[in-house]
Specification:
By secondary structure, this protein is mainly α. The protein has eleven helices and no strands. It has a single domain (about 10-195), classed as Hypothetical protein af1432 (Orthogonal Bundle). Helix 10 packs across helix 11 (about 180-195). The structure holds fe (ii) ion (FE2) (2 copies).
Length: about 200
């Protein structure tokens, strides 16, 4: 299925300034997000727009992200100080809002939380979260990707949960930190889907 949606000029301008490999990732995520949205009877144009916007700040270094977060008054906790790259979602969302590129609150939340997930992501936010994680170029980082893609075809909640299960297991095995919002999201999904 071919679906081409036009992006706002202001967003295109941001995208054109990004490194080529990041633009290629964004392009793959847009395609996956459109397809997932159609599979779940959601607005594919909205999913495409959020996917196009999700990594507008991904090219910044950790130090620069911390500086931007401070300027934009984004809360920075101990996790963000330890792994500042996580701030590219919040910084990107603030830029997009400030510059009037995105006004849809669900899409802004989707961009803000696309790395860790959040319990209140709406269905389009879940589509963007999953699409970002199942980009085939990330298979080395996420070897459990096939189970996420398979789960997401049946249910977006199951797809998010499959990713969080996979990443949290790896983080524990490798003695790495777990983002508190990922743990919180996983708890909420398990509780909500067990009722
Ligand atoms: Fe990202
Ligand atoms: Fe991404």
């Amino acid at each position: 299925m071919r679906m081409n949606f036009d992006l706002p000029d202001s967003l295109q301008k941001h995208l054109l300034s990004l490194p080529r490999n990041l633009r290629a990732h964004i392009s793959r995520v847009r395609k996956i997000a459109r397809e997932l949205a159609v599979e779940h009877s959601l607005n594919a144009e909205l999913a495409d727009l959020g996917a196009a916007a999700h990594d507008v700040a991904r090219h910044l270094s950790g130090g620069k992200l911390l500086e931007e977060a401070e300027k934009l008054q984004i809360p920075v906790g101990e996790f963000e100080r330890f792994a500042p790259i996580i701030l590219h979602g919040p910084v990107g969302a603030c830029w997009l809002k400030k510059e009037g590129i995105l006004s849809d609150s669900g899409l802004l939340e989707a961009v803000y939380w696309h790395t860790s997930a959040h319990p209140d992501l709406d269905p389009i936010g879940k589509v963007i979260f999953i699409a970002d994680k199942i980009d085939p170029a990330k298979v080395k980082a996420y070897p459990f990707q096939p189970s996420v893609a398979k789960a997401a075809r049946g249910s977006l909640d199951e797809g998010v949960l499959a990713f969080l299960d996979g990443i949290i297991k790896e983080q524990v095995d490798q003695h790495r930190c777990i983002h508190p919002m990922s743990a919180h999201t996983r708890n909420r999904l398990i509780i909500e889907n067990s009722c």
